[in-house]
């Protein structure tokens, strides 16, 4: 049984900063309008397939299913009895987990499961395997720590044999810390404050957990390298356990279940096996050879595993016009693909089942694409098996480090990158590695690109997808030395694709384009937030997409080799997929998409779409558009229409700025719904009600406690701020006279109580910040941060730096120093924040302490010249602030 003497989880080696999204995230996750995919209905197997197709064993136990869990403060274990259930392998934030709670960076998530203890013997070991756990993990068996792991996307294992009882019941506890986007960890598009192109976080176990019985001396890894030019394949196997004196590895290659070739060699040495007329792997013919690998000692077979491989080659060659082209099996192939994020409305990072993963890939291929760019996420290994099996080319992104590159982030990214390379190396579908994306956390680009090329010379390396980024034909990021050491020159261009100005002697690619939003009523993740590069009706979308592919066909003749459309499925607030987020509604028919795409992708248009795909989706209703606004409004006025339609019409009336009908529809909606104060309805009312004249205003103000409980205190206070701004602040600012902030504060306090006071002081501070009235800025800086320091909505360091630069009043400088000290200690320990704190001390005459702290800032960011300059000035005893700043007071 589980012991209360469990040791504590080791400290998370990362800087954790949380700015107050916690309450919002908790309510958003627990109450969001969760839509469900068809695959989630009746999910029974909980990922019952063997999860590692490249190294298959038969003696295993699936540990997915029901576990117990509890959440505690980070690095603190308090035994709470593990009374609550969670479904593994679904992240705790997901609907399928049965929990739907966030894990904050300040918390530890503990899992607990009891298993029947296996029988022990001297000839076998028991390995506990995890497909992936996000992010930092420690595992305990029967109360003792068996190992730790860091990394949110890779598989890891522990030999737990020596910790098992051998009879009765064993307990397994898994402790997880996940900073999400507040640590050094690669996190992809997971953030604590999701919206637009960023999504709900995933924490904890999100891939299969299984227990395996293995021999003491066993095969640990297999590396397969096909060589189509020499009609052979090379195998390298490594082992674990006791050292072999005379051990050999025997490899048998099978085609359609029949042995066709074999070879024997030493452990850790290449075994080259010739193949007669090998059948090459391609999207048109994704043939896979099966493999049996045996570890033998004399006549004894010590271990046996199964695997597979595809015979294919990926390379680059010039065409007749001198353009570099991607070649598959020594033949040019245009890569027409989609940007696949790998998110699900019910499971988030985890698909409902592996069959759902396979269905996604089959759906993308049925659309007429031959390529998937797997976007800053690493999938379960079964996803890559299905890509191999179905014949889909894959560009695999590495998961980006955090944007700010806090100390330790570079090393962590590089470590996780190498593990990704090693674990995915055998999949024939992967033809290119993508190192960085749009500058997100990019560093040492040349070195990192060369590192990947050295680790895997058999694939292309895309050193930076979107290093040049165009939005509406405007360049958002210009650079002098693009795509250094890369095989591919890759621009992003939204919404329409555009050519590269220079091919830089590399393969030309448009790594992202499109992003056209087509909303599907009643199939949205959040109808209050929709994001995309352009919004079109379904019929317009079909025509625009055809124009995009026609333009790419022209660019292809000019040297373009690849184009990736954003994206196959809607994802949360992004409604720019070909299919709705719940995988139910198709926005362009399969036959239309295939006919458009086949010009570039070469997908066989004569091959019929599988019936299971044709029946899985319904086509979007092109007649149900915003043009029916007047017709729907008339029917609602006539007494028909349910609350879902009325809600949709409220939002549409706001888009049309039809204020009178917005108010009318809101009043009808409030009469229709049974519970005005649930999350959905309060969220809508806070979106709609901006003044006392709006029907939802009285509901929200009358029951402020219930409203705040429904959506979270922070979200409710944001609504109050919006109302205060519209009712009091905007009219005063519009008068163009002197603003009497004290009068506004008095009026607001009378209506909304003391909590409205800080909104006024914050608005006053920002108004004077913008007008550069530093005397009044300082006055309201003090008033605001006296009441709002712990939950400031403004960037403390930016505001405080202006005090340092422009204020000489000692009292105010001391107050600002205290605010800065709090900021550095509790919220923001960046080099820039430390620099502000040091400069305030220096200006107040605390030279020695200032120098001590400024040295810390320089050590943290030696690349920022201004920090070194400030330290130099402090050491020389000259001002670090503008010399004329004191004249402003």
From TrEMBL:
Keywords: Glycosidase, Hydrolase, TPR repeat. Residues 86-213 form the Glycosyl hydrolases family 2 sugar binding domain. The keyword Hydrolase applies. GO terms for molecular function: hydrolase activity, hydrolyzing O-glycosyl compounds. Residues 217-312 form the Glycoside hydrolase family 2 immunoglobulin-like beta-sandwich domain. This is Glycosyl hydrolases family 2, TIM barrel domain. Belongs to the glycosyl hydrolase 2 family. InterPro entries: Beta-gal/glucu_dom_sf, Galactose-bd-like_sf, GH, GH2_Domain-Containing, Glyco_hydro_2_cat, Glyco_hydro_2_N, Ig-like_fold, Ig-like_GH2. SUPFAM superfamilies: (Trans)glycosidases, beta-Galactosidase/glucuronidase domain, Galactose-binding domain-like. Transmembrane segments: none annotated. It comes from Chitinophaga jiangningensis. TPR repeats lie at residues 831-864. Residues 354-466 form the Glycoside hydrolase family 2 catalytic domain. Pfam families: Glyco_hydro_2 (PF00703), Glyco_hydro_2_C (PF02836), Glyco_hydro_2_N (PF02837). It comes from the Bacteria.
């Amino acid at each position: 049984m589980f012991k209360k003497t469990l040791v504590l989880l080791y400290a998370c080696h990362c800087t954790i900063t949380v700015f107050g999204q916690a309450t919002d995230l908790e309510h958003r996750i627990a109450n969001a309008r969760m839509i469900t995919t068809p695959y989630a209905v009746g999910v029974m197997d909980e990922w019952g397939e063997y999860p590692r197709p490249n190294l298959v064993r038969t003696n295993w136990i699936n540990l997915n299913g029901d576990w117990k869990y509890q959440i505690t403060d980070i690095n603190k274990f308090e035994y709470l009895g593990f009374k609550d259930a969670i479904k593994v392998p679904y992240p705790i934030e997901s609907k399928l987990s049965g929990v739907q709670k966030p894990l904050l960076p300040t918390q530890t998530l503990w899992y607990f499961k009891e298993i029947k203890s296996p029988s022990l013997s001297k000839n076998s070991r028991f390995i506990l395997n995890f497909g992936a756990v996000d992010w930092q993990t420690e595992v305990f068996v029967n109360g003792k720590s068996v190992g730790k792991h860091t990394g949110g996307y890779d598989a890891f294992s522990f030999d737990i044999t020596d910790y098992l009882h051998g009879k009765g019941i064993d307990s397994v506890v898994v402790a997880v810390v996940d900073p999400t986007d507040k640590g050094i960890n690669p996190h992809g598009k997971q953030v604590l404050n999701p919206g637009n192109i960023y999504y709900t976080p995933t924490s904890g176990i999100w891939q299969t957990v299984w227990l395996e019985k293995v021999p003491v001396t066993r095969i640990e890894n297999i590396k397969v390298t096909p060589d189509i030019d020499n009609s052979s394949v090379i195998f390298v196997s490594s082992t674990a356990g006791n050292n072999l004196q005379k051990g050999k590895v025997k490899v048998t290659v099978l085609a359609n279940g029949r042995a066709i070739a074999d070879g024997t060699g030493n452990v850790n040495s290449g075994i080259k096996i010739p193949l007669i007329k090998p059948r090459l792997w391609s999207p048109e013919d994704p043939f896979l050879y099966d493999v049996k690998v045996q570890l033998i000692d004399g006549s004894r077979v010590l271990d046996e595993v199964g695997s597979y491989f595809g015979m294919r080659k990926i390379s680059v060659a010039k065409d007749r016009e001198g353009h570099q082209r991607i070649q598959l099996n020594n033949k040019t192939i245009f890569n027409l693909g989609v940007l696949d994020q790998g998110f699900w409305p019910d499971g988030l990072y985890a698909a409902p089942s592996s069959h759902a993963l396979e269905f996604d890939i089959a759906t993308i291929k049925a659309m007429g694409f031959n390529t998937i760019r797997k976007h800053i996420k690493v999938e379960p290994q079964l996803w890559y098996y299905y890509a191999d099996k179905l014949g889909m080319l894959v560009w695999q992104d590495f998961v980006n480090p955090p944007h700010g590159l806090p100390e330790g982030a570079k090393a962590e990214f590089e470590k996780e990158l190498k593990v990704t390379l090693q674990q995915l190396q055998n999949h024939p579908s992967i033809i290119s590695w993508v190192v960085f994306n749009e500058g997100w956390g990019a560093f040492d680009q040349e070195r990192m690109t060369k590192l990947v090329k050295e680790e895997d010379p058999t694939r292309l390396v895309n050193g930076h997808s979107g290093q040049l980024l165009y939005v509406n034909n405007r360049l958002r990021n210009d650079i002098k030395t693009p795509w250094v050491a890369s095989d591919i020159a890759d621009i992003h261009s939204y919404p329409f694709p555009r050519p590269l100005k220079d091919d830089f002697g590399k393969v030309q690619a448009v790594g992202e384009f499109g992003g056209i939003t087509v909303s599907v009523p009643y199939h949205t993740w959040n109808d209050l937030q929709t994001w995309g590069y352009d919004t079109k009706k379904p019929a317009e979308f079909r025509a625009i997409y055809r124009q995009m592919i026609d333009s790419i066909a022209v660019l292809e003749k000019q040297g373009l080799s690849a184009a990736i459309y954003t994206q196959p499925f809607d994802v949360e607030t992004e409604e720019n997929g070909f299919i709705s987020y719940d995988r139910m509604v198709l926005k362009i028919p399969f036959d239309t998409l295939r006919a458009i795409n086949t010009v570039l992708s070469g997908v066989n248009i004569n091959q019929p779409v599988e019936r299971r795909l044709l029946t899985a989706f319904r086509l979007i209703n092109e007649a149900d558009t915003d043009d029916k606004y007047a017709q729907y409004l008339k029917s609602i006025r006539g007494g028909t229409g349910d609350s879902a339609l009325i809600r949709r019409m409220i939002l549409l009336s706001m888009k049309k700025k039809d204020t009178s009908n917005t108010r009318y529809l809101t009043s009808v909606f409030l009469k229709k719904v049974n519970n005005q104060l649930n999350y959905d309805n309060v969220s809508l009312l806070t979106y709609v009600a901006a003044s006392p004249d709006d029907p939802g205003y009285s509901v929200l103000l009358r029951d402020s406690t219930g409203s705040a409980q429904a959506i979270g205190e922070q979200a409710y206070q944001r609504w109050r701020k919006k109302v205060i701004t519209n009712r009091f602040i905007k009219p005063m600012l519009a008068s163009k006279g002197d603003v009497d902030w004290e009068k506004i504060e008095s009026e607001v306090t009378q209506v909304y109580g003391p909590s409205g006071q800080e909104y006024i002081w914050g608005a006053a501070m920002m108004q004077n910040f913008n007008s550069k009235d530093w005397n009044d800025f300082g006055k309201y800086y003090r008033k605001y941060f006296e009441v709002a320091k712990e939950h400031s909505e403004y960037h403390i360091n930016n505001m405080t730096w202006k005090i340092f630069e422009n204020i000489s009043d000692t009292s105010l400088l001391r107050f600002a120093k205290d605010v800065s000290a709090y900021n550095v200690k509790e919220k923001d320990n960046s080099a820039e924040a430390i620099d502000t704190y040091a400069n305030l001390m220096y200006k107040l005459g605390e030279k020695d302490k200032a120098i001590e702290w400024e040295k810390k800032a320089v050590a943290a960011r030696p690349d920022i010249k201004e920090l070194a300059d400030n330290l130099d000035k402090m050491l020389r005893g000259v001002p670090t602030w503008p010399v004329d700043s004191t004249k402003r007071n």
